[in-house]
Amino acid sequence: MGKEKAAAKNIEDLFNLNNTLQLQKPLAFFDLETTSAARETARIVEIAILKINPDGSREEFISRVNPEEPIPAESSAIHGIFDEDVKECPTFSMLLDQIDEFLQGCDLAGFNSNRFDIPILMIEYLRSGREFSLENRNLIDVLTLYRMLSPRNLTAAYREFCGKELENAHSALADIRATYEILVAQVARFDSVPGNSQELHEICGAHKIIDPYGKLKLNERGELCFAFGKHRDESIRQVLQTNRGYIQWFLSANFPEFVQNLLRKELSSIESDKK
After folding, report:
1. For the chain, which end, N or C, has fewer CB atoms within 10 Å of the first or last residue's CB respectively?
2. pTM for this structure?
3. Alpha carbons 210 and 217: distance in angstroms, whole number
4. Which DSSP letter does residue 51 get?
5. Residue 273 pLDDT class (50, 70, 90 cuts)
6. Using one digit for the tens of pLDDT, what is the confidence trace for 33-68?
7. β 27-34/107-110 pair status
8. Domain boundaries, the chain
9. d(CA 114, CA 142)
10. Which of 43, 48, 119, 117 lies closest to 75 in space, CA to CA?
């Protein structure tokens, strides 16, 4: 972790310091709400941009977007945007010129933007027959900086929750002893962290682990889904109806037998439901 600078009294003090961010050109912070977390297929349902100019002035752009396809219920549960909310909104293609002009000459910033928002924005441009160029743009991902400045590893967790330095890190015995102490400290400190194994199991999402190879997974409804590729996050039942050929390809591809047997078992269960 880098050496910390003298802290301002509060966040407003930072905004009053003209040299906190030394900008040579506008810096556009932007965030997208989408139909899914899969970059290849996600469609934008809301875009918000905060542009900070070198003189410190700010401009904002925000718009709901009609994705031209249904918004999955699990996505609406996260961002609170439903089909009804966007049916009268402009499509991304209709907003393209406005967005293009607003981002003209800007560097880009966001939270996980390099891995999520920027790729999705680029793909939406391509769908509209245009290209969003990153040439001469600086890309600043605040999540990357956060992880660099606040490491999320066992040593950092031990220091935060137990107030001690971890000795013999990466020695298996030292690591598991530290892990035990961290769990006890977390349960003791936070009301939201239960003390019994079953509830901890549910919080950690361990019930969703079904395929160690990462090809199949369970969704929130307990349905077997693809965990990769063009049908990522779609249930086997759904893909069976829309693209049976993909199922056949999966079963004939060189995937581990364990994974293919999981799929065969699910297909058998689906067939049984029809009887």
Report:
1. C
2. 0.64
3. 6
4. E
5. confident
6. 999 988 888 999 999 999 999 998 999 999 999 999
7. parallel
8. 11-145, 154-203, 207-274
9. 9
10. 43
